[in-house]
Each structure stands twice: as structure tokens, then as C-alpha cells.
């Protein structure tokens, strides 16, 4: 069952903005407050855009955690049976993307840029907004494929759908230009991710650029290598240690808590899947205690993935299973946006692909160590035993085995970030996930994209039809451009 959460604070803000933006001409200036601001507070818009990072890494995107079999549904298994055919993207376009475009607009316009400079230098605000736009647009295009991009966010109600290839090309340009745009002026205000630290934003941009490049490893390997190497060698650096992790900080407050905490507050709709639990057990992986809670019998038992409702009712009536751990459900559990383990695995794959020089095995082991430390399960003895396991360690001479094991460790290290794990599984096909035998979709396969929002066929039909014809249909079985 999919739950829609409404942020009351944002709704109130939206209503206020609409009231400010529209006036009742029949009453002349009667309803105009001469003391009210007619321009936005860009620091507040940035904070709002950054709060939406939580939805990109948390439980709001619960379907993707089901597609990659991190979780299983305990009561209403429709999403696990691949019943979802389309999804709305309005939370992206009408939320963070619109806020970020407004920041860019008001810091570019000659009539408003001087006023906006009180919230950080114009260049610094624009640079941060451009980087974040790439972050959010990547989430959108990776879920739907070809999307409105070049004509979006400019008061065009019927924008064309740009090809994913052209969007990815523009991502590289935007990240490079944005990183170069930072100046020595006033730091950006309202930055709850990096506190206005331009060096952290540049490091984040390089890390994002490397991950975007890796996404193209199969469809455009030459471009992928060029962009990856350029970002890898950039003087600003990229995330390589847990101290550099891009982390969204949640608070011990119901209004600003970890969304996984909110998703399990008073509800019991999910358990950790048997697919994940069985893999962790097979590898004797200490992260199991960070990912999952023990049952009342002191065991880790996964909830079977993809059962029908009747089968679920019968199974759960007779068996206990592991829910997510208390650590993961704590209000202050950190929201990991990009991590050292994720980036070290990216480097290991780049070495295996002969893009960069290095030791794939050492980078792979360092990534595992970083993940263990991130989940606070590291000890030298446990780590050494783990990487010595012949089912885990890699031999650089066997490229296929190396890529498979990197892919499996990436799947483990990304938990519980379902959106990123779903994209990486589609790109690499690792680990070898098996679809539920009870799938209700026509293909019976794990979805590889979302269908376009239902409203597009009515509100933007010409451009919708053109996009559907170009990609070959509008089902969740049509692969996005980079998924080869």
C-alpha cells in the first residue's frame, strides 16, 4: 500500500505564495500590503529544496526498495507484484526543481540580483542550485527516461520531452560549469546540507559527475570514461572517506525525523526481505544487525518476497520475521546521499574497466570497510575474516567476477536507498534478482521504469505521444536509454 504524506508546512507556504502571486484586480490596491515582500527569500527556497533530499533517500520511495528486494510487504503486496504502471513526477517539478529554478532566476535577473545577494553571492547561489537541479533531474530521468527538461520550469505548460541521452550530456556541462562558478563572495545561506561550504559542494558535484558517468558504462563507454576520469582527477576531489559523506541530518523531532521512522510509526507494512537476509547470512555479513532487527526468538528471518495477499496472511500468521533495525528506525538515523563506500566501489569498477589505474581489490576492500564503519559494525577481526572469504574477495584477473562482486557489494552498501540501488541493478544486473512468480504485470518481470503520469496524455498529448513513439511504448517494461 502506498501512502501519500503531506507536509503541512509546505502546503501553508504554497498557499501563501499563491496569495502573494495573485491579486484581486476588482479591489484595486485594497488587498496589497505595502510592507509585504514581493520577492522570495532564496535562502528559504534552498532549505526547502534540500528538505526534499529526504524523499530521495527515504521511505517515500518505498516501491523502489521493493523492486530491488530490500524489503517485502507484509499486508498489501500489490507493489511487490508489479502492479504499478505509472507514477507522478509532480513532487519533483512542483517542489525542489521549481524552487531551484527560482533561485537561479532571481540571482540572474539584473533587477533582483542585488537584493538576493544578502543570501549569498549571486554566483554561489546559482552554482548550488545548478548542482542540485542535476541531482533531482537525474532522479526523474532515471525513473521515466525521456522527460521534459530544456523547456521545463519556464512557464511552458506543454514542454517537449528531451531524450535521456541529451539530458545526460547536459548534466556533465552543468556540473562542470557550476563548480567553476563559485566565487569568494558571501557563502550561501539556508544550506542545511553543507553549511554553505563551497569546497563540499564542489566535491559533491565531482562525486555526482562520476556516478552519472558510470551510469553510461554500457551505452556510451567512451563518454563515460572521459567524464569519469575528468571528475576523478579534478583538484576539488570527490568523496572517499566517511568524513566526507554527503549526509542529510534528521532531528529528534516528529516534524523533521528520518522518514523511515515515520513510515513505521504505528504501521507494520514491511519486513526485511528474505532475499536480503539470506544473502547477509550466506556472507556472514555483520551489517545484518544494522539492517534488520532480530525476531522474538533472537533470529534474523526474512519476510518472503513477492507473495500473494492470501499467502502472506497465512505465512505471517504462523511465522515471525525481521523488521528494519532500531538503528534504522531511529528519528535521527542519518540520511546518506552519497557515501565513501559508494564512491570507492565506483573507483573499483573504473579500475576493472581500465578507465583509471589502481588496485580494484584494494578499493573494493576499502569500500567494504567504509560501509562497515558507516553502519558501526566494524572490527578489524570481523573485517579481515570477511574480505578473506573466497565468496567475497575478488581476483583482479577475472573481470566478470570482479564486476559481479562489486555489484553485489554496491547493492548491500546502498541499503536502504532504493532509488539508487534500482538504477544500479538495472545498469549492471547485479545481483541476479529473481522476479516474484506471482507478478501481475504482462511481462512478469521486475519493472525497469515508471510509465509517464496519466495526466500527460491529456495535458501534453503531442509531446507525450512523440516521446512514447520514440522510446517504443509507455510501460514499466520499456528500458531507459542507458539500460542496455
TrEMBL record:
Q: Which SUPFAM superfamilies match?
A: TPR-like
Q: Which Gene3D superfamilies match?
A: 1.25.40.390
Designated name of the protein: SusD/RagB family nutrient-binding outer membrane lipoprotein
Q: Which domain of life does the UniProt lineage start with?
A: Bacteria
Q: Where is the signal peptide?
A: none
Pfam families listed in its UniProt record: SusD-like_2
- The species is Ohtaekwangia kribbensis
Q: Which InterPro entries match?
A: SusD-like_2, TPR-like_helical_dom_sf
Recorded hits in PROSITE patterns, A to Z, give: PROKAR_LIPOPROTEIN
Identify the keywords attached in UniProt to this record, alphabetized.
Lipoprotein
Amino acid at each position: 500500500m502506498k501512502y501519500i504524506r503531506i507536509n503541512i508546512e509546505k502546503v501553508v507556504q504554497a498557499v501563501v505564495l499563491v496569495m502573494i502571486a495573485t491579486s484581486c484586480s476588482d479591489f484595486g490596491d485594497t488587498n496589497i500590503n505595502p510592507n509585504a515582500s514581493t520577492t522570495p527569500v532564496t535562502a528559504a527556497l534552498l532549505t526547502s529544496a534540500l528538505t526534499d533530499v529526504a524523499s530521495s533517500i527515504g521511505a517515500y520511495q518505498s516501491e523502489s526498495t521493493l523492486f530491488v528486494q530490500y524489503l517485502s510487504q507484509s499486508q498489501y503486496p500489490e507493489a511487490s507484484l508489479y502492479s504499478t504502471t505509472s507514477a507522478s513526477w509532480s513532487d519533483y517539478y512542483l517542489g525542489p526543481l521549481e524552487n531551484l529554478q527560482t533561485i537561479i532566476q532571481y540571482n540572474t535577473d539584473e533587477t533582483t540580483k542585488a537584493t538576493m545577494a544578502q543570501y549569498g553571492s549571486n554566483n554561489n547561489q546559482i552554482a548550488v542550485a545548478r548542482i542540485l537541479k542535476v541531482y533531482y533531474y537525474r532522479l526523474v530521468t532515471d525513473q521515466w527516461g525521456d522527460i521534459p527538461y530544456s523547456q521545463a520550469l519556464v512557464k511552458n505548460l506543454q514542454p517537449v520531452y528531451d531524450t535521456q541521452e541529451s539530458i545526460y550530456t547536459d548534466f556533465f556541462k552543468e556540473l562542470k560549469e557550476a563548480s567553476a562558478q563559485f566565487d569568494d563572495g558571501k557563502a550561501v545561506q539556508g544550506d542545511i546540507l553543507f553549511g554553505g561550504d563551497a569546497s563540499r559542494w564542489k566535491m559533491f558535484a565531482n562525486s555526482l559527475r562520476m556516478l552519472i558517468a558510470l551510469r553510461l558504462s554500457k551505452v556510451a563507454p567512451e563518454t563515460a570514461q572521459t567524464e569519469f576520469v575528468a571528475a576523478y582527477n579534478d583538484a576539488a576531489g570527490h568523496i572517499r572517506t566517511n568524513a566526507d559523506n554527503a549526509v542529510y541530518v534528521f532531528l529528534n523531532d516528529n516534524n523533521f525525523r528520518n522518514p523511515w521512522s515515520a513510515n513505521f510509526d504505528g504501521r507494520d507494512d514491511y519486513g526485511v526481505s528474505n532475499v536480503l537476509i539470506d544473502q547477509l547470512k550466506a556472507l556472514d555479513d555483520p551489517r545484518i544487525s544494522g539492517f534488520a532487527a532480530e525476531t522474538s526468538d533472537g533470529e534474523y528471518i526474512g519476510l518472503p518476497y513477492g507473495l500473494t495477499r492470501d499467502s502472506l496472511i497465512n505465512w505471517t500468521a504462523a511465522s515471525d520475521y525481521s523488521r528494519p533495525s532500531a538503528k534504522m528506525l531511529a528519528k535521527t538515523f542519518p540520511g546518506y546521499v552519497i557515501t565513501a563506500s559508494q564512491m570507492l566501489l565506483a573507483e573499483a569498477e573504473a579500475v576493472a574497466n581500465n578507465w583509471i589505474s589502481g588496485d580494484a581489490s584494494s578499493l573494493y576492500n576499502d569500500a567494504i570497510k567504509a560501509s562497515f564503519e558507516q553502519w558501526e559494525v566494524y572490527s578489524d577481526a570481523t573485517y579481515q575474516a570477511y574480505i578473506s572469504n573466497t565468496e567475497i574477495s575478488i581476483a583482479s584477473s577475472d573481470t566478470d567476477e570482479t564486476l559481479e562482486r562489486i555489484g553485489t557489494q554496491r547493492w548491500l552498501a546502498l541499503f536502504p536507498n532504493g532509488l539508487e540501488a534500482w538504477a544500479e541493478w538495472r545498469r549492471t544486473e547485479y545481483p541476479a534478482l529473481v522476479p516474484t512468480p506471482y507478478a501481475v504485470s504482462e511481462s512478469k518481470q521486475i519493472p525497469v521504469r515508471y510509465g509517464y503520469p496519466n495526466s500527460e496524455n491529456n495535458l501534453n498529448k503531442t509531446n507525450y505521444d512523440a516521446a512514447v513513439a520514440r522510446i517504443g511504448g509507455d510501460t514499466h517494461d520499456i528500458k531507459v536509454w542507458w539500460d542496455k
